[in-house]
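YM 10:42: Homoserine dehydrogenase sequence, as discussed on the call
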Amino acid sequence: MKVGCGGDGGSSTEEVPTDYKALSAYLLKQNGIPVIADVTASSSVQEHYQEWLAAGISVVTANKGIFAGCENKYQSLLTAAKEGQCRLLHETTVGAGLPTLGTLESLKASSHDIHTVEGILSGTLAFVLGQVAGGKTSLSQAVKEAKELGYTEPDPRDDLNGMDVARKAVILARLAGMKGVELSGMTIESLVPESLRSCSVDEFMAKLSEHDKSMADRVAKVEEAGGRLHYAAKVDVKEQKVEVGMLSCEASHPFNNAGPDNMVAITTNFYTRPLVIQGAGAGGEVTATGVLADILQCANQP
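YM 10:58: structure's back
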């Protein structure tokens, strides 16, 4: 935490360590329902979740790290929340403000058996594949344009490698009821050519065009059969499989109407045609509303 101080018309800031024990002790002394909202990207803050929950402090977070990490750690958080009779909500870890995780939990609670959860969970990859669809442009040009528009990370490979989508897939799989799901055991397709994975960003951008034809051929093959390629996560609860990568979708698939949005399609024993959730999957405003919705759920808990 940074604290500012000024003297003689000047100002300065210094880094002051946050005393999380003092924070939790203070909350527990107040009247009302204690809630801590974590909107940092800090793993050190997440190390306090379990003690907060066990003490009866609800936790709301937008930080996906711990929820896509070791399953034992994740399960320990659920146990702590149950013992502390409080809530652990992290809706915005998948799809920003979209009501995806809450919908999954509501479906399970109302006797639905989740069969599959499919998701377009990267706006960057949706944009890139949308640009190469129909041969409109090449892979390298689409990545260049996405970078110039600010849609990618400074190193576009951090988007193209699929790891962010994979982390979200782990979260979806666990909430859908799957056990034993770990990143290390998943099939994750990277769109970064192997020969360009360890070079500089400039070299990557310069040489990506060498791989344009292979992508164009792949897209054309699927489209000639009447389908469309999307980069997506697929959680198959019945088959106990989680896959992340290029998904060939037939013409009637909901993903073909996603455009630049995030989209999640859920099938259950009752929803044999998918229940679809669609909308902006990133952005400060929608993420803030998702965090606020979780806080209000905690504040209104019985």
